Backbone:
């Protein structure tokens, strides 16, 4: 069976977009082949990409669609044939089906006999069909940012398309997109192979032909070669290794067609700069790998991944050039560091008046004042709850937290905000507590990042983020759908994570205390719902709790994050027990009865009247509930959720017996009201840890 | 290769590929893009092939001549090709060979870098071109300008000349670049000798000496004049502004020949053609530079910044729209 090759050649695709595009194109081509019944049973799919191309190779493609038959049903037999003679209706149907009238058949259906025809569809040749369809698959690729390039703007794409290869074995598939006709010609490495086309004779030759033209088309192979070359280059330095950085490996893999690695050095004196600065310059600005010793300490080396294998003189030139650039960058950083020290953080607070936080919300100076008020509030709450913290240091840290936004170093390396402030605070002798709090204020940025290690840092992180959220929600900037331009979801995730992992006795409502008492109701409601959603995400996606456990736990309260986690842990531990599954089923039943009663307007007693309890099963349940409620409440109060849940599970025989023997919705109104009150008491008395009715039974 | 030889070779290269070599624009600009040769000429359908060296002023980037890598005023070679030829990248790579960069001995990458000038309602997608880890060129496919979609688009190539020269001459400080050599004595004249004094004194001016209240006053004057021109343009040429007959008459009275009978459409076109949109654009550039000066002086508060930028944006976009309308309506005849 023939092989298919489809390659789109273009100007350099942004590295960050390539992997997803390769995957999507492959899925689209395979789906197209499947849809058109062109995929043989034993087929094989390979996909490739480089900065200048996306390609899919499929072996085991059919050279034409198989013929297909279909039964087409027409008018009723009695309409189609009168006295055994075909009517106009029969002739019309035969024409439509493309068969002769003689070929019409009779099909019995439950509604009577109908005319039918067996229609044969002739399969179309694959090149012809793919020639019509492949371009649409390419055009449909999703790109985060598109461009126009041809006059009259006929199409948008990530970058201009320069060539297309589309072949089925030796035959060119007539694809055309963006004014480019497919052929057998691809192109090799820009510099090492030049602009001479590389002719592909057969799809099988694709990888080999490109390899000869200095292009490694396979991403995995390129990545592997880069890793090996990084190892190889580092080997000459005793005890050294390159600092693992999978994201950077991906980036350079997608920036190169024919990679090699060169090591460079820099003057040891630069190692006096903070490691954070050195690594940011190397990784974020130059895409260099750092080199460390066995203790993880940086050495005066770097590794750069080239998109070429230069001639020997070239290696020296390239090393020299990269060293020169890095030296200039490090010099800049050192210059900025020195200049910044001339104005201490303390003096920079005033300068924040001219740094915009948000055009409607004022400057970072304004924000700092607001942060201070919140932080003081939170600190007071914590002190009331017997948490010791250094109030002076906290206030100083909050006041100075944003001052680094005015420094040259942060203007140059924005990703180091906070970190630079912390380093400066330390250098300016403000004490470790202040320095640490400032340093860690933006962590966690991602859910896997650690929370600030000190209480002062945690409070700063909470105050800064809740201030932003309240202010942004206040002017209607809450995230909608996929749009979250101010990263408020990330801020809320960080808050949840700090509340969960810091051990601070603070709840979401404690954080919302800064909302104005009047007029804040709507925002409070929105924020509460927003945090509940984030807590749900945290419990499920970060902590891995089952979704029904999360639902059951959050149904009874999402305000106290740590408490919700403790309840989720307890519930997870006992949920496997048969008794609890039965309780969960019984609670669902209670809920249904109460809901139906409410819907029918049937009244329920306010409290259980023991005198009205007739059956022994209901009496027993009542006694048990009264006793157990006290025990459970006591355990719950002491946070012993697992024991409390185990106690609740002992209710099972009584509940089972009750539903076995006792009818709730009886005609006698007083009895009915009383029994409704009893089951309502069961539900409310034991649903404060989790709403068991949310649990999905394993069976 | 001296700095001036480098400038000459690159300009020659593009001249040989059909570019008109324009002179640097003589109003202060922050980048070659802001010259009307780019900002306005990318509008509309007329093909453009133009190249020019553009001194670009960024007051806040001044370092009193003390930083070896940063300048208040640097030089960009700006190339605009509308529409961009399909082999524009290859031509660009040839230009590097033309200035003595043997590509086989270097590492060259096109890394995603999109360009945006919000004040001009302008953006494009493209790359920064990295040569052995050094960004030497910004390569942009212009998509929008003055808030208008461009059709056809333009390819813009912007070379950072000082960086390239320092790279080629392998010097660590821009000020050590050899600008020229005396043909008789072979004595080197450095970039520092030519420009250091200017960097120092203009840094002093930009950061310390510029009179803030006068800068505001200049800004207000330029802005008022620009706005008045734009208002006049709209009053006279916007179809909604006045009944067309009255408008034609006024235009005729004022601009053509007072004693002849008005011949409406032709008069309108003549008046439109000579309307000084380009003058209004120069006033915008003045405003933009004054804004940058005020910024360097630390004289712009948060609320002012947002408001002033919005006003300059309105003027710049207004001029771009007027320019496009002017070209379209006067070329259509």
Residues:
């Amino acid at each position: 069976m023939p092989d298919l090759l489809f390659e789109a050649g273009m100007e350099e695709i942004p590295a960050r977009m390539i992997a997803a595009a390769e995957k999507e194109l492959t899925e689209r081509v395979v789906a197209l082949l499947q849809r058109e019944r062109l995929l043989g049973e034993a087929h094989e799919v390979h996909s490739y990409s480089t900065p200048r191309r996306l390609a899919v190779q499929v072996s085991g493609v059919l050279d034409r669609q198989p013929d297909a038959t279909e039964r087409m049903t027409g008018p009723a037999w009695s309409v189609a044939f009168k006295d055994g003679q075909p009517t106009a209706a029969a002739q019309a149907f035969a024409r439509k089906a493309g068969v002769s009238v003689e070929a019409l058949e009779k099909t019995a259906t439950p509604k009577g006999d109908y005319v039918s025809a067996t229609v044969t569809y002739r399969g179309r040749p694959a090149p012809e069909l793919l020639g019509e369809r492949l371009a649409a698959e390419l055009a449909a690729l999703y790109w985060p940012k598109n461009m126009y390039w041809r006059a009259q703007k006929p199409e948008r794409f990530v970058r201009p398309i320069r060539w297309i290869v589309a072949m089925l074995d030796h035959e060119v598939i007539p694809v055309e997109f963006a004014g480019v006709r497919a052929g057998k010609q691809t192109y090799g490495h820009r510099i090492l192979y030049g602009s001479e086309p590389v002719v592909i004779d057969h799809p099988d030759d694709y990888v080999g032909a490109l390899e000869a033209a200095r292009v490694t088309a396979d991403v995995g192979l390129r990545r592997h070669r880069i890793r090996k070359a990084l190892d190889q280059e580092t080997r000459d330095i005793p005890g050294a290794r390159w600092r693992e950085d999978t994201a950077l490996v991906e980036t350079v893999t997608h920036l190169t067609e024919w990679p090699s690695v060169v090591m460079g050095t820099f003057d040891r004196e630069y190692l006096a700069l903070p490691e954070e600065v050195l690594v940011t310059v190397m990784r974020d600005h130059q895409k260099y790998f750092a080199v460390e010793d066995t203790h993880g300490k940086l050495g005066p080396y770097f590794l750069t991944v080239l998109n070429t294998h230069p001639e020997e003189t070239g290696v020296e030139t390239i090393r020299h050039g990269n060293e020169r650039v890095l030296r200039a960058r490090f010099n800049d950083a050192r210059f900025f560091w020195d200049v910044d020290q001339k104005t201490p953080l303390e003096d920079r607070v005033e300068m924040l008046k001219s740094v915009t936080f948000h055009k409607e919300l004022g400057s970072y100076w304004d924000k700092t004042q607001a942060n201070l008020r919140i932080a003081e509030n939170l600190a007071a709450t914590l002190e009331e709850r017997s948490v010791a913290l250094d109030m002076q240091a906290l206030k100083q840290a909050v006041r100075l937290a944003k001052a680094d936004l005015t420094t040259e170093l942060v203007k140059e390396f924005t990703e180091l905000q906070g970190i630079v402030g912390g380093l400066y605070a330390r250098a300016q002798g403000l004490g470790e507590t202040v320095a640490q709090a400032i340093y860690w204020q933006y962590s966690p940025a991602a859910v896997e990042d650690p929370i600030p290690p000190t209480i002062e840092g945690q409070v700063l992180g909470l105050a800064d983020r809740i201030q932003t959220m309240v202010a942004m929600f206040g002017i209607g900037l809450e995230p909608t759908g996929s749009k979250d331009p101010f990263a408020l979801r990330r801020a809320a995730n960080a808050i949840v994570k700090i509340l969960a992992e810091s051990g601070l006795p603070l709840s979401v409502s404690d954080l919302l205390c800064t909302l104005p008492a009047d007029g804040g109701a709507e925002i409070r409601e929105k924020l509460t719902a927003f945090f509940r959603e984030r807590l749900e995400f945290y419990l499920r996606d970060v902590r891995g709790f089952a979704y029904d456990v999360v639902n059951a736990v959050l149904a009874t309260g999402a305000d106290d994050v740590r408490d919700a986690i403790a309840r989720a842990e307890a519930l997870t531990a006992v949920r496997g027990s048969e008794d609890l599954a039965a309780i969960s089923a019984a609670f669902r039943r209670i809920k249904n009865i109460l809901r139906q009663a409410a819907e029918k307007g049937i009244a329920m007693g306010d409290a259980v009247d023991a005198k009205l309890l007739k059956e022994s099963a209901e009496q027993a349940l009542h006694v048990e509930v009264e006793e157990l409620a006290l025990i459970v409440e006591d355990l719950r109060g002491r946070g012993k959720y697992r024991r409390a849940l185990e106690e609740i599970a002992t209710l099972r025989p009584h509940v089972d017996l009750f539903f076995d023997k006792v009818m709730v919705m009886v005609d006698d109104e007083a009895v009915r009201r009383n029994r409704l009150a009893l089951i309502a008491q069961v539900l409310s008395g034991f649903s404060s840890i989790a709403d068991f009715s949310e649990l999905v039974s394993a069976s | 290769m001296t700095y001036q030889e480098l400038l000459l070779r690159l300009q020659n290269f593009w001249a040989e590929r059909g570019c008109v070599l324009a002179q640097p624009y003589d109003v202060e600009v922050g980048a070659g893009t802001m010259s009307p040769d780019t900002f306005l000429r990318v509008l509309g359908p007329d093909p453009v092939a133009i190249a020019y060296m553009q001194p670009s002023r960024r007051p806040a980037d001044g370092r009193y001549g003390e930083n070896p890598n940063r300048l208040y005023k640097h030089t960009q070679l700006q190339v605009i090709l509308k529409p961009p030829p399909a082999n524009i990248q290859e031509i660009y790579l040839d230009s590097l060979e033309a200035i003595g960069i043997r590509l086989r001995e270097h590492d060259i990458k096109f890394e995603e870098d999109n360009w945006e000038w919000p004040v001009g309602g302008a953006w494009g997608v493209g790359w920064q071109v990295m040569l052995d880890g050094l960004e030497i060129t910004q390569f942009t496919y212009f998509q929008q300008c003055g808030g208008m979609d461009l059709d056809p688009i333009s390819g813009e190539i912007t070379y950072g000349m000082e960086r390239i020269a320092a790279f080629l001459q392998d010097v660590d400080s821009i000020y050590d670049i050899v600008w020229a050599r005396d043909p008789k004595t072979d004595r080197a004249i450095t970039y520092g000798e030519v420009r250091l004094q200017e960097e120092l004194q203009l840094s002093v001016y930009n950061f310390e000496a510029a009179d803030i209240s006068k800068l505001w006053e200049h800004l207000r004057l330029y802005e008022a004049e620009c706005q008045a021109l734009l208002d006049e343009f709209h009053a006279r040429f916007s179809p909604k502004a006045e009944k067309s007959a009255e408008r034609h008459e006024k235009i005729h009275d004022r601009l053509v020949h007072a004693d002849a009978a008005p011949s409406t459409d032709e008069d309108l076109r003549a008046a439109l053609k000579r309307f000084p949109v380009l003058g209004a654009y120069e006033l915008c550039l003045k405003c933009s530079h004054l804004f940058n000066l005020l910024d360097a002086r630390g004289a712009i508060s948060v609320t002012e910044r947002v408001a002033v930028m919005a006003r300059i944006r309105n003027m710049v976009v207004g001029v771009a729209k007027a320019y496009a309308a002017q070209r379209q309506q006067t070329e259509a005849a």
Q: What stands out?
A: The mean pLDDT of chain B is 92. The longest strand of chain B covers residues 148-160.
